[in-house]
Structures are given as structure tokens and as C-alpha cells.
Amino acid sequence: MQIEGTIVAPDEPKNWDPKNSRNWLDFSNLTKVLFQGGGVIDGSGGKWWAASCKKNKSNPCKGAPTALTIDSSSAISVKGLTIQNSQQMHFVISRSNSIRVFNVKVSAPEDSPNTDGIHITASTNVILQNCKIGTGDDCISIVNASSNIKMKTIYCGPGHGISIGSLGKDNSIGIVENIVLDNAFLRASTNGLRIKTWQGGSGYVRAVRYQNVMMQDVSNPIIIDQFYCDSPSACQNQTSAVAISQIMYRNISGTSRSQKAMKFACSDTVPCTHIVLNNINLQRKDGTVETYCNSAAGFGYGYVQPSAECLSSSDKDNINKPEEEEEYFIHTEL
């Protein structure tokens, strides 16, 4: 599939087919297909954004089209495309296996609502490499039933960071495992490396490795939030939660906009376990930084700034045995 020039979506929402209001360019049930070219996919999203309830609370909350969707497919490569100004999400990979995305650029204004860059759901064996993403929502979002995802050489900003989740909404099951981010630069994003889950969910996030990441002026560089609540009304306290374990952060450095450069806000009944920090150096231009912990177990070794002493640890025997950590996390290498 060779894409050259610019493909432009209709810019008037009322001209959209109401029976197919969530999709624009949708490819499904493909095997061994290459999408390539220097072309641009332009969603003309301005009027959709203006009608969003996130822009104006008096507007009704409803979905808008995704610019490009690859669904129920396998052995797909996407190379060199630019996707911009999507009505809602830019590029969704859904229910697919063995997907390779290289040299893709995603671009939308910082204030465009719900415009995730690359969204991965119910997919496995996905590689994202050399991608530059700046949007009004998550640069990359990975949600339920996704595993074996490797992201390498990723530029993110503006946006809401590189996120796992949200998971567990409406008491649902969320399962994400074997995720690697290696070599990334995040600039002026509202979050850096984020895992977000709703109270009341179940399932797990495990075997995640973030390494070689530079942050510049990022509000929440490292954050696990098991109390995520993207709702106009307060979310009800619930005891069940998506379990989070085996999360490694290695060689993470840069500047934080907020005082809490690392935040591990975990469930009292389903604590986060085996969080490992190695060679962390996060600073703040005009003040000190700190780590916040609630029901989070793990430890740091090597240089860790700010200190993560607030992490409780059931793994103290391993603190001086980083080689055991290598063995423990080896299966996250893809």
C-alpha cells in the first residue's frame, strides 16, 4: 500500500456517516502487507476537537473517528508515513500480531483532546521504532490484552507521555505484560513513563522495562497511578485493583516540572511489588524533587535521585545483587 501526497478527511463532523462514526481509514484481516511512502494522512480534526466535552463541558461526550486503524491483521509493516490532526486517536493497532512500525510521525496540537498518537489494544509482538509523536494525549498508549511490545528510539512531546492504560475501568479485567521501552526522549509532556489503572479493576501489568530515557521539562517523569479517574464526577473507592509488578526503570534522567518526580500511588489492598530503580537522575530547575509512595514495594541500586527510600521492600536480599535483577527481568527483552 503506497501512500503519497496527502489524504485529507472531510472536516465537517455532520457530514460523517453516523453508522461509522469511529473510523476513517480502517484496514482489517490483512496478512503480510506493507504500508509505505512519504505521504500524509490528515484527519482535519479541528471541528471535532471544538465539539469535544473535554474542550467544553457543555458539549456531549461522544467518540470521534480514528484516522488509521489496523485490525485483526498479522505480519504488517508501516514505514515512513505522517499522520496528523486526527479527529480522535491517530493510529490504532487492534487485535493484531507481528506489527512493525518504523519512521512514523504523528502530530497534533497540544490542546487537541483524546488524540493519542499510537494506541495498541489486544495485540502482541509489536515493534515501534524511530517514531516522533506530539499530540494532545498519550504519545503511545498500551491497553488490555497486549503483550510483547518493544518501543525503541521514540521522541514524545507534547502529549501525556508513554502510557500503559488506562486499565480496569468499570470493573473490567486488564492484562498487559512484557513491555520494553529502550532509548526515548520526552520533552514538555504532562507525564513521562506512566501506568494508570482504575479502582475496581482486576488483572495485572507485569514485566515492564523502561531504559535509557531522557526527560526535559516533564511534569510527572515516573508515575504509577492505581487511582486513575478520568471522570467528571469523583470515582468511588473500591478495594480490587489491577496488580502491578516487575517494573524496572534503568538509566532515566532529566528535569521534572513537578516536585514529585517519581510517584508510586498504589492500592492498599493490591500493592505494587518489585519496582526496581537503577541509575535514576531526575532534577528540578528551581527546587528539589522527591519520591511519593503508597503501598509500593521495591528498591533502588546504583545512583537513585530523588531517593526512593519510601519504597517498602520484601526483596532486601537482592539489593546488592543486581545480577539477579538481570536474570529476573531477562524475559522482558524481545
From TrEMBL:
Its main location: secreted. Its EC number is 3.2.1.15. It catalyses: (1,4-alpha-D-galacturonosyl)n+m + H2O = (1,4-alpha-D-galacturonosyl)n + (1,4-alpha-D-galacturonosyl)m. Keywords: Cell wall, Cell wall biogenesis/degradation, Glycosidase, Hydrolase, Repeat, Secreted, Signal. GO terms for biological process: carbohydrate metabolic process; cell wall organization. One of its GO terms (molecular function) is polygalacturonase activity. It is found in: Secreted, Cell wall. Belongs to the glycosyl hydrolase 28 family. This is endo-polygalacturonase.
